[in-house]
Amino acid sequence: MNIAILLGVSTYVHEQALPACAHDVNNMHQLLGATGKYDEILLIKDSTKASTVKSNLRDFFGKYQNREDVDEVFFYFSGHGMHHNDEALLCCSDFDYRKPSTTSVGSGELDDLIRSVSPAVAVKVIDACQSGSPYIKDSGLGFEKALSKTPLKSFICMASSRQDQNSFATAQESFFTRVWIDAALTRVDGAVLYRDIQAALADEFVDTPEQTPFFVNQGSGLEAFGVVTEAMRMMSNARLTISDVSMEKGSVVELIAERVAEKDKEFVSQASVIQAVESSKTAILNEEIDDRIISHFYSLKISVNLKLAALPNVEEVARFAKKQFWEKSNFVKLIEEGYQAKIRKNSIAGMALGLTTRHLANRSISDDDFYIEDRVRPINVEATETLPFEVAELIYASSHPSLPEFRIYIGLVHSLTELTTLSATIRLIQKGWESRAAELPDVSWRYHTQMWRSVVASPMLIYQEAKSRGESDIRAYLESLVPKVEESAGATESSANP
């Protein structure tokens, strides 16, 4: 018995709509139906609030928990995705950053549901990010690692991009899902192995370094998606026909003009961008602490005078910027430095001399075993186009000497069509009686990209999410100072029974 779940979330209350996802899940549903392989396919695409989605998933898996003949569970998702507390979250339509776990389906919860039916093979296909035409789908740092962690024994996962990359889409379809379906329909007969689909995906994106699908395999490598059916051949021909017809409907010039018109809608004027950032600057300078408990212990001071180059642990930002090709896509310049790397020489030469691997490992190592290579690395970022402010620094100071100072940093990086907000919450530690500093290795940056047209319509989007997240971090620290009920009871018992 084979069962499948297809979840597509195209509309969001607090996030950007994803028009491609509705088409993605319909196309994948058609493909799975054409295989004739699946005994039941649960399609979730209309009622996508978290409570409804979770209820549907639990009911669906509940029907198969007492069976012993589930061969495969196939799960597909297209929508927003993010990383939180070392878990990959599949965001539902009511997703809220202030309540991430209750407004999304976590990878851990999904794995538990799949494991409850003891399938011989579990397959997860994740096209999760921000989508649109050509909106960017951002899976977020840590997403890849979180998806790779699973208690499932025979497990195949294919996801649209690596943890620090974007996934691209048009308004009609996500590129990853389109290639996945076309790869499954390539053969005219015989079995279509999942590893063949993976190979096709890897080849398709080889010239797109900005998006590299990633795969996790814990199986034999011979697991089959299906055996080619007449319905699959008809679907393949129909997809090719649709492509041919679209080319026949108009000249190349007309098709290009249509695409240009779509892209033109993404642009807003420089004047409206400046006005939006100026409005945001005025608003943030008048912000107060939202959390009642935090305001009892802390006061807030705000500065908007820093530059990107002054961000703490800016080297991490620079490394991320280089991986994401920011110099090509945003108004920034990367500052790099040269350095000399000490590289261990290949041990093949030693093997040629008759030295075994054990001998090479045990013998003493000298400078002759290394060579020096000149390299460069990014160390800083500078904006090449100015905005009314580049970095907002929110300083949470306390009159209580036992409480640390916190700072929320919000940096802006932009292009003609998009704004990327960098944010980090930092706890300062005492370096002396009157000096404090951040522990730089602990500084972790978050990145959130929005279309300028959305920001122009609501300038507070520039900083509200970062401020809310930061205050949640501070609140969590304050609450950690209060012992849990169990700990308190244990301490009382210990003192009563020395």
Describe the structure.
With 498 residues, this protein is an alpha+beta fold. The protein folds into 2 domains: 257 residues, Rossmann fold, CATH 3.40.50.1460; 166 residues, no CATH class. Helices cover 36% and strands 27% of the residues. The strands form 6 sheets. It has a 6-stranded mixed β-sheet, sandwiched between helices. Strands 14, 17, 18, 19, 20 and 21 form a 6-stranded antiparallel β-sheet that branches. Helix 1 runs antiparallel to helix 7 and helix 5 packs across helix 6.
Given as residue ranges, the uncertain stretches (5+ residues, pLDDT < 50) are 130-142, 162-169, 244-250, 347-358, 492-498
The averaged pLDDT comes out at 81
Strand order of the largest sheet: 2-1-3-7-9-12
Largest sheet composition: 6 strands, mixed
CATH architecture of the largest domain: 3-Layer(aba) Sandwich
In total, how many domains does the architecture comprise? 2
Short recap of the structure:
This protein is α+β, with helices and mostly antiparallel strands and 498 residues long.
Write the layout of secondary structure elements.
Elements: E1 2-8, H1 19-35, E2 40-44, H2 50-62, E3 72-79, E4 81-84, E5 87-91, E6 104-106, H3 107-115, E7 121-128, E8 136-138, H4 143-148, E9 155-159, E10 166-168, H5 175-184, E11 191-193, H6 194-204, E12 214-218, E13 224-227, H7 230-248, H8 252-264, H9 270-285, H10 292-297, E14 299-306, H11 314-323, H12 326-329, E15 332-344, H13 348-352, H14 357-362, E16 370-383, E17 391-397, E18 406-414, E19 418-430, E20 436-438, E21 446-451, H15 452-457, H16 464-480, H17 485-496
Parallel strand pairs: 1-2, 1-3, 3-7, 7-9
Antiparallel strand pairs: 4-5, 5-6, 8-10, 9-12, 11-13, 14-17, 15-16, 17-18, 18-19, 19-20, 19-21
Helix pairs in contact: 1-5, 1-7, 5-6
